[in-house]
Amino acid sequence: MAREVITVYAREEPPDRWDAAIFLAGPTPRAPEVGSWRPEAIAELEERWKGGGRLVVFSPEDRHRVHFDYVGQVEWEERCLHLADEIVFYVPRDLATMPAFTTNVEWGMWHDSGRVVFGAPPEAPKNRYLLHYAAKLGVPRATDLPGTVAAALGRIGTGAPRAGGECQVPLLVWRTPSFQQWYGAQRAAGNALLGARVVWSIGDHRGLRVRIRVAAEDRVKEGEVVIYRPDISAVVLYRPGPSLEETTVVLVREFRAPAATPDGFVHEPPGGSAPGGAGGDPLRTALDELAEETGLVLPPERLRPHGDRQVNATLSAHRAHVFSAEITAAELAGLGTAGPRGVAADGERTLVEITTFGEILRGRSADWASVGMVAGVLAEAGLRG
């Protein structure tokens, strides 16, 4: 697709494909004699857009500056705000001609979405509160329109080509390895993404409500939320016993708020995720997490890979890369005397638990995913009851 910038004005239908999309949020003049800042913003975007494809600019002003249906306008803005890869908040507030009351509300709705930039002339009044939260959340800020536009385009880069329902996946999700891993699996199955909407975003964890055509069943499934987060690596440490049930297994206990276990803790093989997610090295992550949570440092050749699977396929797209190691009596004794570990700065505090496979099966503390990891590893190790 050749380089182009398309402006979509209020209540106009968006195109069906683009590489990037920007929404111009901010005060709109209501009187014809008051000039708008948006034509200058569009001109800046046309000049600065360096991507090789299509940039779509959503302008909530009517192309001919005529009166409009209020409800239709609000619904169009909500739709296009969700479609945008970046929302440019430029607030040249004038209390007499452009008080920006609606802008204040929109800022409150989107300021923590991870896809906003904020700009305002230094002399514009009543922006201190907005600027406070922009600074607090690390939102890119500028004091003029060219700088604000540049900040948005800097985060977009060259964008990414998307079509149809893909356009409803913003770049901050589209570019994550976890989304691409899930979407690649869906496409390989012949399924088509018809629609999507980010419903929440916390750090590198995101929830996307999706609408999908299921090829094998020739129907559309909608309404479910897919959680995207980095893959994890888990290490099952064991020492064979007289029987399968008497085989020693090492778990870690850690308080996690979602736990609904009898003691309020999770009990699972040591493991976790690392920066880079699915694009990182699962073996390196496994070794690092093992050392971090138990204090046991092993060379890479000690870990046996068992492949990867989803942990909770009805909710989350992430996978667990499972490894194992048969440990020595000395290593087991050292683990038995280990104190609390973890990264205190991240609120992590782990304690080693030495148990048996039989106790794991009979107890109710380890979740089914952990039971499955341990059982799979011990089965592959040839241990039998």
Percent strand: 25-35%
Q: Give unreliable regions as ranges.
A: none
The succession of helices and strands, N to C, reads EEEHEHEHEHEHEHHEEEEEEEHEEHEHH
Q: CATH top level of the largest domain?
A: Alpha Beta
Domain module count: 3
Number of strands: 18
Shape annotation? elongated
Our measurement of the CA-to-CA distance between the termini, rounded to an integer number of angstroms, reads 62 Å
CATH topology of the largest domain: Rossmann fold
Tally the helices: what do you get?
11
Share in helix: 25-40%
Radius of gyration: 26 Å
Q: Given the helix and strand composition, which structural class is it? A: alpha/beta
CATH architecture of the largest domain: 3-Layer(aba) Sandwich
Mean pLDDT: 93
What profile does the largest beta sheet have? Answer: 7 strands, mixed
Protein name: 8-oxo-dGTP pyrophosphatase MutT (NUDIX family)
Domain Nudix hydrolase: 228-385
Pfam family, one: Nuc_deoxyri_tr2
Characterise the protein shown here.
This protein has 385 residues and is α/β, with parallel strands linked by helices. The protein has three domains: 4-156, Rossmann fold, CATH 3.40.50.450; 176-228; 232-380, Nucleoside Triphosphate Pyrophosphohydrolase (Alpha-Beta Complex), CATH 3.90.79. The protein contains eleven helices and 18 strands. The strands form four sheets. Strands 12, 13, 14, 15, 16, 17 and 18 form a seven-stranded mixed β-sheet that branches. Strands 1-4-3-5-6-7 form a six-stranded parallel β-sheet, with helices on both faces. Strands 9-10-11 form a three-stranded antiparallel β-sheet, with helices on one face. A hairpin with an 8-residue loop joins strand 16 and strand 17. Helix 1 crosses helix 5 (145-156). The mean pLDDT is 93. InterPro entries: Nuc_deoxyri_tr2, NUDIX_hydrolase-like_dom_sf, NUDIX_hydrolase_dom. This is 8-oxo-dGTP pyrophosphatase MutT (NUDIX family). It holds the Pfam family Nuc_deoxyri_tr2.
